[in-house]
Amino acid sequence: MRLLIVGSLNGQLTTATKMAMETGAKVAQVDTGELAMDALRAGQGADLLMVEVSNDIGWLAAQLQAERIALPIVACGLGSDARAAVNAIRAGAREYVPLPPDAKLIAAVLEAVADDTHALIYKDDIMADVIRLADQIAPSDASVLITGESGVGKEIMARYVHRHSVRKDKPFISVNCAAIPENLLESELFGHEKGAFTGAVSRRIGKFEEADGGTLLLDEISEMDVRLQAKLLRAIQEREIDRVGGNKPVKVNIRILATSNRDLATEVRNGTFREDLLYRLNVVTLMIPALRERPADIMELSEHFVKRYADANGVPARPLSDSAKSHLVRQHWAGNVRELENTLHRAVLLANGDEIDVDAIRLPDGSRIDQTVSISSSDPASRAAQVAETVSRNLVGMTVADMERDLILNTLDHCLGNRTHAANILGISIRTLRNKLNLYTQQGVSVAAPGEARIAG
């Protein structure tokens, strides 16, 4: 945990710093929000900003968003200043910590940021084989390509490799190549000099330099434009980068991990991915099986998610009924662990009685899990007949455009509005998905916002 304190915390800086360091956090301090942005641009990484309320938190939150620096803000102020607390939350702070600081409260805030969302939960033998290989190659500096369907946990596996490497005490920096617009990705990776382009008001350190000494994860690397792949290849080969607008190479010491839900060999044949870059990345491959191929993990993860979301929502952690377990194991889980997590989150909120039964386990469209076609069950002929009957009944009379729209919007609902996850499941680029959604919005069609699904009916 890397904590950046902004301000003097009303004279409580030394006490708060000591408390944070006792929890294992690495602490740095600056006096103002402007200096905090300068430090972040210069590559001083942080996982959490603890900001004194006398600073302009709204300005700081806006600057972080404008420069695509994803960091939570915790505001600190005198405990009796209720108005300051409310204003800080409205301005963009996640939490408000009263001063003088309390050791348990500081520890709880840091623990909440470093929560168990990156825990690697497994029980199935097929997944255990993957973990054994990860343990074997983690201590090396070899590049690793992590493959698998969308939602299987590729980033979690990457963090697992980092935690078991010799670089574990150094930064782990993740870049989602699909989520960053093509014209900004080069600057995001390699940084830029002041004046390099319109809006480059100061030097910005890129992710390669921010990860120096540690690990850089290139998430969904198959979405990277082929022209930028050439510059990435040189950076990996030479271990040096050129900032946009710069004229002096910068040496970097990093380990490269990459993920893809596509077959990169096929992308090479299609001309959308460089073969030489694939060879550089693919020193070791960790292929994560789909969730439906590891049934023991379905139950292990289900119980984990039930406990997590029961605790988070202040409701009892009810056990899953035998019928619920049976249907969970038989479900196809096209969205893998991510879909299972969303499903169990809903189930925790909808459950009544002493157990979580099938009536609480519902898909985004509201249908119960026991009322859907279970593609993993029965023999192939029966599965084909069930699917054909369902498709025929639901799609007759629809145009191709209508079917495409419904498929896209239903998948987006399924992913609770997450554009990147939906694009991965649909097998299209994030840019294509955004263009489709913009068109539907212009046509007056309801589109799920991030973190939400459309309300049925």
TrEMBL record:
GO terms for biological process: phosphorelay signal transduction system; regulation of DNA-templated transcription. CDD domains: AAA (cd00009). Residues 120-349 form the Sigma-54 factor interaction domain. Residues 2-114 form the Response regulatory domain. InterPro entries: AAA+_ATPase, AAA_lid_NorR, CheY-like_superfamily, Homeodomain-like_sf, HTH_Fis, P-loop_NTPase, Sig_transdc_resp-reg_receiver, Sigma_54_int. The keyword Signal does not apply. It comes from the Bacteria. GO terms for molecular function: ATP binding; sequence-specific DNA binding. Transmembrane segments: none annotated. SUPFAM superfamilies: CheY-like (SSF52172), Homeodomain-like (SSF46689), P-loop containing nucleoside triphosphate hydrolases (SSF52540). Keywords: Activator, ATP-binding, DNA-binding, Nucleotide-binding, Transcription, Transcription regulation, Two-component regulatory system. Gene3D superfamilies: 1.10.8.60, 3.40.50.2300, Homeodomain-like (1.10.10.60), P-loop containing nucleotide triphosphate hydrolases (3.40.50.300). This is Transcriptional regulatory protein flbD. It comes from Candidatus Phaeomarinibacter ectocarpi. The lineage of its organism: Bacteria, Pseudomonadati, Pseudomonadota, Alphaproteobacteria, Hyphomicrobiales.
